[in-house]
Amino acid sequence: MCAFEGAEPEPPAPGEPTVTLRDIASFRPSVPSGEMQPAGWAVVGLPANFIGQGSVETRSGSLLGRPAEVRFHPVAYRWTHSDGAVVHATDPGATWDELGVAEFTATPTSRTYTASGRYTVDPTVVYVAEYRFDGSAWRWIDGTLSLAAPRMDVLVGEFDTVLVTGDCTAIPDGPGC
C-alpha cells in the first residue's frame, strides 16, 4: 500500500509488467537540500530550526524498454544528528518567519542541543514514486526511496547576555564592561 494521500496502487494494466523501485533506479529526483536557523550554529538549551526541501518531480526516459515517466513525491523528512538524535516529520518544516513565531521557538523539525560542541546533521527526504507508460494512467510503486541532502555542520555553544550602560570601547571601566 502506498503511504501517499491514502492512494491505493493500481494494478498494472493487462500485459503491463509490475514495476519496482529497482526498475526505476535510472530515474532519480534532484538531490534535496536543507537549511537550518540560525545558519550553522545553535545555542545550548535553545531550539535550532531545521527545514527540508524536496519537491514533486517528474522524469522521462526508458523503463523496461518502453517510453515512460516516473514521478516522485516527498512524503517524509528526517534529520539524523551526530549525537544520536533523529527528528522525523511528514512536513519539511518552515522558517520561524514563515511560521510567524519568534526566533528560537520550538518547531516540529527543531532540535535542542544539551552540550556545546561541533555536530553534523544528515538531512534525508523520503519519496514515494509512481510511473506511467506512454501517457497511460499513473500507477504507484510499492515502497519508498530515501535520498540524502548534503550534510550540515553545526557549532553549538553557550552564550551569556551582558547588559552594559554604554560603549565599552569608549568607557572600558563602565558597568558590565
UniProtKB/TrEMBL annotation:
This is PKD domain-containing protein. It comes from Agromyces luteolus.
